Amino acid sequence: MTKRILVIDDEDGVREIIQICLESMTDWEVLTASSGREGIEIAQSEHPDVIMLDVMMPYMDGPTTFKQLQAITETCDIPTILLTAKAQSCEQQEFLDLGVAGLITKPFLPEDLVMRICEILNWNYMTYILSG
Predict the structure, then answer these.
(1) How far apart (Å, rounded) are the C-alpha atoms in residues 35 and 101?
(2) Which of 34, 55, 92, 129 could join 84 via S-S bond, C-beta 3.0 to 4.6 A?
(3) Has keyword Zinc (predicted)?
């Protein structure tokens, strides 16, 4: 069954890179949102299998967006992976303490992205990689 991934990031380039990477390496469907508010709306209507959420965004940052997603019945059970450029372990621990499924640090190598998502969510990597 095809997985559906929602990518919430205010940077167009980051959303595009993630979408291209995931769609070219897997059969996953990638939904995108450019803000926390838009992401919450899409999550409620589309109920993706996982949300990838940027930490640093204007207006509503990633942790605030995550807390709002957790407060909504339709979205509180969707695993969320934070995307962060903050590499310090104390900052990363603060994010994990929020209750997210995991963290992926930017920048990342496109070929590592699918593997990290599968590791975090305990999905079988080989099940999702398209043989080229």
Answers:
(1) 20
(2) 55
(3) no
User: Cα dist. 8→28, 38, 130 in Å?
Assistant: 16, 8, 24
- Render pLDDT for 22-74 as a digit per residue (tens, 0 to 9): 999 999 999 999 999 999 999 999 999 999 999 999 999 999 999 999 999 99
Structural domain span for residue 117: 4-128
- The model's confidence at residue 87, banded by pLDDT at 50, 70 and 90, is low
What is the value of pTM for the model shown?
A: 0.94
State how far the Cα of 54 lies from the Cα of 15, in Å rounded to an integer.
Answer: 10
For 31, counting Cβ atoms within 10 Å of its Cβ (0-12 exposed, 13-18 middle, 19+ buried), the class is: middle
